[in-house]
Amino acid sequence: MRRIASIVLLCLVSLSFSACGSGGDGATGQSNAKTLRVGVECAYAPYNWEEGEPSDTNVPISNHEGFYAEGYDVQIAKLVADNMGAELEIVKLPWDGLLEALNQGQVDAVFSGMVDSDEHKQAAAFSEIYVPQPTEYGVMVKADGDYASATVPEDFVGASLLGQKGTKLDTVIDQIDGVNHLPAVDTITNMLERLDAGTTDGIVINLESAEAYQAQYPDTVVVDFPDDDGFVLDFNGVCAGVRKDDTALLDEINTALASVSAEQRQDLMDSAMELAGQK
């Protein structure tokens, strides 16, 4: 009888510990918590960058301990995750590895200033645009340089121009005849440093980012070509990327984005521009 009683007591204790250790779903022991893993370059202000100190608005970078992601992309991703009832995880990745990481399952989505170009659409599906307005490109030059008074593409004949590797900021340079198209560099930061050092006459930038860049490099001007004489772009604007077969997540993202008003998007961009200018 004592043996039977001991066995019954042991079973009760085991059941008690099992119940305490289970997650949100008592039947399976699995947690109901949902995480949205987002790939970000963290080097493209005002869309995204990294910081060494936590703040009320930035997000820890899961694969870069002690650093935090900030910028417009990050704030939009936070709103999307909140709308989905998910926890946001930011994964820092090199620009040219974002879509590969997405398709390998390392991240669920990409929020990284990425446009829905024909090339990108070969590797991923894209959400609706989440920036305040369509993307336009221009050329940033030194204020005291030879091309400060340029107004149209033809004014850059003979100039050396630089873009970011693997992006439209590089490939559109070939739309201007007679320029010296320099080998692309990895990051926007490298482009700005090259312009500042005088090793390039100009760099192609997203006009939406111009204010933030000029806050860091005030001795520059931005050439915004006329609408009928500017760069021809094969995309609509900055969007979130997901795997092509992940239609459910794409729907969730688009539903969340639809809840973010134009005014709220502009406020977030203005804040990101201000923060980026203080870096």
From TrEMBL:
Q: Which UniProt keywords apply?
A: Signal
Q: Which Gene3D superfamilies match?
A: Periplasmic binding protein-like II
- The keyword Signal belongs to this UniProt entry's keyword annotation: yes
- What InterPro entries has UniProt attached to this entry? Solute-binding_3/MltF_N (IPR001638)
**SUPFAM superfamilies linked:** Periplasmic binding protein-like II
TM helices/strands, residue ranges: none
Task: Identify the residues that the record assigns to the Solute-binding protein family 3/N-terminal domain, covering every copy.
Answer: 35-270
Q: By what name is this protein known?
A: Solute-binding protein family 3/N-terminal domain-containing protein
